[in-house]
Amino acid sequence: MILSNPLIVVAMSFALLSLAFLTMAFVGLKKRKVFGTTLNFVVTLLMLSISALFGTISIATQGYQALTREELAAIVKVEPIGEQRFMARFSMPDGREKVFSLAGDQLYIDAHILKWKPLANIFGLHTSYELDRVAGRYALLNDETIKVRTMYSLSQDKPLDMPDLRRRFAIISLLLDAEYGSATFINSNSTEEFRVMVSTSGLLIRKAGKETSQ
Questions:
Q1: CA-CA-CA-CA dihedral for 214, 70, 110, 105, to nearest 10
Q2: Domain end residue (candidates: 37, 60, 83)
């Protein structure tokens, strides 16, 4: 539900406040109260700007998952299908499934991680992540330069992209503490099932049923 998103709730709240101040501005205008009318119009614009800011952030962070501890980002089953070729079957926590045909000796996955400042926590913004890309990785550097490269997107399509939004609007930096990427890889030469985990320190891969990272 839309109202389950705290950013949308904040955006709607400021939008309602802007409507209230706009109404007061029109009342002041009818009573010819110039100062009060001007002040209410200014506050209306401020409330609308804040509402638009949180609405935009909400759109830009679609697909990101809240991160408060080490969490499961995906379960991946790897199946070799030839020399330096393998299939990677992703099962996401939300039920989505994706299958990729990859070239290389290893499964490579990376992600975007957003860490918000304490001020942003008040508005429901906490450390979050989104898996970004999956690729086949060659063990030898020379193979990386001459052999087929395969890479696909894991992120969800959205009208606005958070990294691009931060570059375009400096005000976002007042709320965003850090934005960084994290990557991990593991051998793909045998049929295995892996758990892709994510924490505030980054990504890691574990074989299903094992506690130690690979």
A1: 20
A2: 60
The reply to whether 213 falls in a domain is no
The whole-number average pLDDT for the span 151-159 is 83
Residues 148 and 192 in one domain: yes
- C-alpha atoms less than 13 angstroms from C-alpha of 19 in its C-beta half-sphere: 6
Number of domains the chain contains: 2
24-57: pLDDT as tens digits: 777 777 776 767 678 877 888 888 887 777 777 7
**How many residues comprise the chain?**
214
- 65-66 vs 85-91, strand pairing mode: unpaired
Please list the alpha-helical segments (H only) found in the chain.
6-30, 34-60, 118-121, 141-146, 162-168
Q: Are residues 143 and 196 in the same domain?
A: yes
Domain boundary, last residue among 35, 60, 85: 60
